[in-house]
């Protein structure tokens, strides 16, 4: 049973996360030959001060997702 973990900054819409899960599942089914119901995807959302690039939090360096919708 493949288990995929995705770490990303908060701010994506529910629809974006649904699309991500659907397309990742399709890719795993094709690549590994498993059934879709056996694919698990865990999405971990990080707050703007839980992720940094070059020592600068995402909230302060413009690295937030372009779409800040309902998560």
Q: Outline of this structure?
A:
This protein is an alpha+beta fold and 71 residues long.
In the predicted model, the low-confidence regions spanning at least 5 consecutive residues are none
Task: State the major sheet.
Answer: 2 strands, parallel
Sheet/helix structural class: alpha+beta
N to C succession of SSEs: EHEEEH
Tell me the CATH superfamily.
Answer: Macrophage Migration Inhibitory Factor
Overall morphology: elongated
Radius of gyration: 14 Å
Could you report the average pLDDT, rounded to the nearest whole number?
Answer: 90
Descriptive overview:
- The protein has about 70 residues and is an alpha+beta fold.
- The protein has a single domain (about 5-60), classed as 2-Layer Sandwich (Macrophage Migration Inhibitory Factor).
- It is about 30% helix and about 25% strand.
- The protein has helices at about 15-30, 60, and strands at about 5-10, 40-45, 50-55, 55.
- The strands form two sheets. Strands 1-2 form a two-stranded parallel sheet. A two-stranded antiparallel ribbon has the order 3-4.
- The model has no long low-confidence stretch (mean pLDDT about 90).
Q: Topology of this structure?
A:
Layout: E1 3-9, H1 14-32, E2 40-46, E3 52-53, E4 56-57, H2 58-61
Parallel strand pairs: 1-2
Antiparallel strand pairs: 3-4
Name its key features.
71 residues; alpha+beta; Macrophage Migration Inhibitory Factor; two-stranded parallel ribbon; two-stranded antiparallel ribbon; 2 helices; 4 strands; 32% helix
